[in-house]
Amino acid sequence: MSVDIKVPTFPESVADGTIVAWHKKAGDTVHKEEVIADIETDKVVFEIPAPDSGIISEIIENEGAVVLSEQVIAKIDNSAEAQAKSEVKVEQAEPTVAVPPKVSEDSGEKFSMPSANKMMQEKGIDAKAVEGTGKGGRILKEDVMRAAQGKGSSAGGVIGVREEKRVPMTRLRSRIAERLVEAQQTAAILTTFNEVNMQPVMDLRNKYKDVFEKKHGTRLGFMSFFVKAAVEALKRFPEVNASVDGNDIVYHGFFDVGIAVGSPRGLVVPILKDADQLNLAQTEARIRDFGERAQSGKLEIDEITGGTFSITNGGVFGSLMSTPILNPPQSAILGMHKIQERPMAENGQVVIRPMMYLALSYDHRIVDGREAVQFLVAIKEMVEDPTRILLDI
Description:
This protein is of the alpha+beta class. It folds into three domains: 2-98, CATH 2.40.50.100; 106-168, E3-binding domain (Dihydrolipoamide Transferase), CATH 4.10.320.10; 172-391, Chloramphenicol acetyltransferase-like domain (Chloramphenicol Acetyltransferase), CATH 3.30.559. The chain is built from nine helices and 19 strands. The strands form five sheets. Strands 9, 12, 15, 16, 17, 18 and 19 form a seven-stranded mixed beta sheet that branches. Strands 1-8-6-3 form a four-stranded antiparallel beta sheet. Strands 5-4-2-7 form a four-stranded antiparallel beta sheet, with no helix packed on it. A hairpin with a 2-residue loop joins strand 10 (242-245) and strand 11. Helix 6 crosses helix 7.
């Protein structure tokens, strides 16, 4: 008897996906719920579990194939004989799993995805020379690509060798490119700047960070203060929380704040839904969770879909100032930057303060310059006097 392995049902916002890795090949035994393939969409990567135990009798769609919802991509022979072989295979493998071969710390032995293994063999690259960015340091196909580029550029020390390598964009990178171009072409993007003295927030954080972490189980960072300040500013300036739909302006009565997060696959923007209902601890915990799951590709589609406003922090990479680009159809995005000590004039005296430049990019079609500037000033005032955030004033 044969069982179909199908592509999962994609949400309406996802048209299709690409098979990026098969973890099994035809003739391999599998057991039920074992992950046997990965399918990448323009939003997330789906892990495909085996629907039953048995032997993979046929792989219909190979790596790189574009597939649709519910499409059959392989078949499993789940006859009694095949299942018996699968169980025997699992039992035989158990001692190996329980007592793995001893590997010295400097042996350099690493785990890698099947597609990565194949590419390393084709390009003659040693796994020891590849830095894995997957879960637990696992080597991904993208890691091998980067190693291959580095190897090509060195050219074995031969001077004058000029090599190029053409690598297709991932689905996520392609979608990011489309959305960035869309934002530039459809919105009238303007950016206004200000700067904020981070000393009050830093003092508050240093005073209570240990007690905060002990009570709430999460660290107190700076992002939660900016999220709370942004929500309060959005309440005062609803145009910044709105979006354009044709000839209509849609005013959102809720505050879903997107937090831009870098991941091995590219930039993703998970959403803090109903951010106005979250306290500082809940905000910090969710942002930390988003960051961790973004690195392992475990974010769900509904977690990165939607949003009424976004925040991006280029300061974690050392950016002193930038002009963030809108995340359509949102009308504004706040850019945070590196905290740097600078001489400032206060009450006729020059003092050193930890300063951060803030940038607000906005859609001038529905947000006027006055509202944009006042919005950013409101955030500045609340961050420089964080009791305003706590007292809602």
